[in-house]
Amino acid sequence: MPPFDLAALPQPLSAYFTSLDRRTLAELFTSDAVVYDEGQTLSEPQAIANWLERVETSYRPRYQVVSAQTVGSHSTVSFVVSGSFPGSPLALRQSFVTRDGKIEQLETL
């Protein structure tokens, strides 16, 4: 199977999955964004920035997108993530809502 074409993703998502420095990604999120991950709900820009930095520092994740479906502003992305965490690599899915070229909502499914 050929690699997934990341250019097919809405712009903030292609940047989200290709950045090698996860700590700089907070600017991809709207000022009122909400993140649902690992049982947490994060809704302040600083909380989201801290979450991105914690994920990078703790897990060093690298992503390989396998597939994606986008309908309007809603996207669901399936990917394999590898890093320094038990069970690596893992197949995961995340749901995104985008608005005005930014991520308004992210949920790890």
Plain-language structure description:
The protein contains two helices and six strands; from the N terminus they run αββαββββ. With 109 residues, it is an alpha+beta fold. The chain has one domain (6-108): Roll (Nuclear Transport Factor 2, Chain: A), CATH 3.10.450. Strands 2-1-6-5-4-3 form a six-stranded mixed sheet, with helices on one face. The longest helix is centred in the middle third of the chain and has 15 residues, at 45-59. The radius of gyration is 13 Å and the shape is globular.
Keywords:
single chain; 109 residues; alpha+beta; Nuclear Transport Factor 2, Chain: A; 6-stranded mixed sheet; 2 helices; 21% helix
Q: In summary, what is this structure?
A:
The chain is an alpha+beta fold and 109 residues long. The protein has helices at 11-18, 45-59; strands at residues 29-37, 40-42, 62-71, 74-82, 90-99, 102-108.
- Structural domain count: 1
Low-pLDDT residue intervals, each spanning 5 or more residues: none
Distance between the termini: 24 Å
Radius of gyration: 13 Å
| Beta-strand content | 35-45%
List the helices and strands and how they pair.
Layout lengths: L10 H8 L10 E9 L2 E3 L2 H15 L2 E10 L2 E9 L7 E10 L2 E7 L1
Parallel strand pairs: 1-6
Antiparallel strand pairs: 1-2, 3-4, 4-5, 5-6
